[in-house]
């Protein structure tokens, strides 16, 4: 099940993205929660999206992220890299993936969880002065 919320705070639940992308007001979606669904890919994301919870799936990549996105929860997938991160992003949860590098991190980022990725060991060594 996929939960979405529109800009007018109306919440709806769907069984698939195929249903969601056909909605006339698709670009008014501000929240998507599709975690724990064994999803292997995401559609083009709505322009107004602020919150994306796609954790605990089998994603190997993410689509382009909208500029409006402020929180991204993509932990526990099979991601090897991340797309460019929006300038408004404040929270990034990307632990338990296969990330070996990051795109440029926005200055607005206040919360970053990236443990259990190949990059985690590299950053830890740098931060310890090794």
Write a brief caption for the model.
The protein contains two helices and seven strands, in the order ββαβββββα. The chain is α/β, with parallel strands linked by helices and 130 residues long.
Structural topology:
Blueprint: E1 2-6, E2 11-14, H1 17-20, E3 29-33, E4 51-53, E5 71-73, E6 91-93, E7 111-113, H2 118-127
Instruction: Point out poorly predicted stretches.
Output: 124-130
For the biggest β-sheet, the strand order reads 2-1-3-4-5-6-7
Q: What level of helicity do the residues show?
A: 10-25%
- Strand percentage: 15-25%
Corresponding CATH superfamily: Ribonuclease Inhibitor
Structure summary, number of beta strands: 7
Largest pleated sheet: 7 strands, mixed
Q: Output the helix-strand order.
A: EEHEEEEEH
CATH architectural grouping: Alpha-Beta Horseshoe
Q: What is the CA-atom radius of gyration, in angstroms?
A: 15 Å
Separation of the first and last Cα atoms: 45 Å
CATH top level label: Alpha Beta
Total helical segments: 2
Report mean pLDDT, rounded to a whole number: 92
Q: What is the overall silhouette?
A: globular
| Helix/strand structural class | alpha/beta
Q: Using the coordinates shown, work out and report the CATH topology.
A: Leucine-rich repeat, LRR (right-handed beta-alpha superhelix)
Number of domains: 1
Tell me what the structure shows.
- The protein is α/β, with parallel strands linked by helices.
- It has one domain (1-130): Ribonuclease Inhibitor (Leucine-rich repeat, LRR (right-handed beta-alpha superhelix)), CATH 3.80.10.
- It contains two helices and seven strands; from the N terminus they run ββαβββββα.
- The protein has helices at residues 17-20, 118-127; strands at residues 2-6, 11-14, 29-33, 51-53, 71-73, 91-93, 111-113.
- Strands 2-1-3-4-5-6-7 form a seven-stranded mixed sheet.
- The radius of gyration is 15 Å and the shape is globular.
- The chain starts with a strand and ends with a helix.
- Mean pLDDT is 92; it is low at 124-130.
């Amino acid at each position: 099940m996929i939960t979405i919320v529109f800009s007018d705070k109306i919440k709806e639940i769907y069984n698939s993205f195929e249903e969601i992308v056909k909605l006339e007001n698709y670009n008014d979606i501000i929240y998507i929660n599709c975690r724990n669904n064994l999803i292997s890919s995401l559609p083009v994301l709505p322009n107004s999206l602020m919150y994306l919870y796609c954790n605990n799936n089998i994603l190997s990549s993410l689509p382009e992220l909208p500029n409006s996105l402020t929180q991204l929860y993509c932990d526990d997938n099979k991601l090897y890299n991340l797309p460019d991160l929006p300038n408004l992003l404040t929270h990034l949860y990307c632990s338990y993936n296969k990330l070996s590098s990051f795109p440029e991190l926005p200055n607005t980022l206040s919360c970053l969880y990236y443990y259990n990725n190949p990059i985690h060991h590299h950053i830890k060594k740098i931060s310890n002065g090794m």
